[in-house]
Design goal:
The chain is mostly helical and about 180 residues long. The chain has a single domain, classed as Jann2411-like domain (Jann2411-like fold, Orthogonal Bundle), CATH 1.10.3300.10. It is built from 6 helices and 4 strands, in the order ααααββαββα. Strand 1 and strand 2 form a beta hairpin. The protein is globular. It holds the Pfam family zf-CGNR. This is RNA-binding Zn ribbon-like protein. It comes from Streptosporangium lutulentum.
Length: about 180
């Protein structure tokens, strides 16, 4: 089971606050994360729960970015207690049998379990320093660093390019003075 895909649910939730303004936006978020099933009933409770989870996950990423490993682990352990994992063997879409973290409960619970368990696995397998906040001002989006050399500092190529151009211009300005 590739839990990086589940951890990416946390990043998607953090980086998509505009999708949490209503049930239609929530449906779009779930579709983008591959978590929406046709006929699934979404409620205001799901929306409120995912808003709360988003705030918790922001703190996890900000704490990781600050280098406080113990605080990240404590927060993730708290979230794991609050969102217990219910693994199930699943087979669908012509795939072989594989593990899913949960198939029961309301949609927000399923999303939370996947996101939290995915982050916990990233932290235990790769390290807390793999959770980051984009270094390109003013962007504060979250990202997962799955690079082999732990070198990621930006949420996207766009932010990396923008930061590199800004640094180049700053060097040029200093050199011309």
């Amino acid at each position: 089971m590739d839990l990086t895909t589940y951890a990416e649910l946390a990043v998607l939730l953090i980086n998509s606050p505009e999708r949490l303004n209503g049930l239609e936006g929530l449906r779009t978020l779930l579709e983008e994360g591959g978590r929406y099933r046709p006929g699934c009933r979404l409620t205001r409770g799901d929306l409120d729960a995912l808003r709360d989870l988003r705030e918790e996950l922001i703190i996890v990423f900000e704490t990781a970015d600050a280098g406080d490993e113990q605080a990240v682990v404590d927060r993730l352990n708290s979230l794991l207690i609050h969102h217990p994992v219910q693994p199930q063997i699943s087979g669908h879409d012509g795939e072989r049998w594989h593990m899913h973290l949960t198939e029961g409960g309301r949609m927000a619970d399923q999303y939370a379990v996947g996101a939290v368990m995915g982050l916990a696995t990233i932290v235990t397998d790769l390290g807390v320093d793999r959770l980051g906040i984009c270094q390109a001002p003013p962007c504060r989006k979250a990202y997962l660093d799955t690079s082999s050399n732990r070198s990621r500092r930006y949420c996207s190529e766009r932010c990396a390019s923008r930061a590199n151009v800004a640094a180049y211009r700053a060097r040029q300005k200093v050199g011309s003075q």
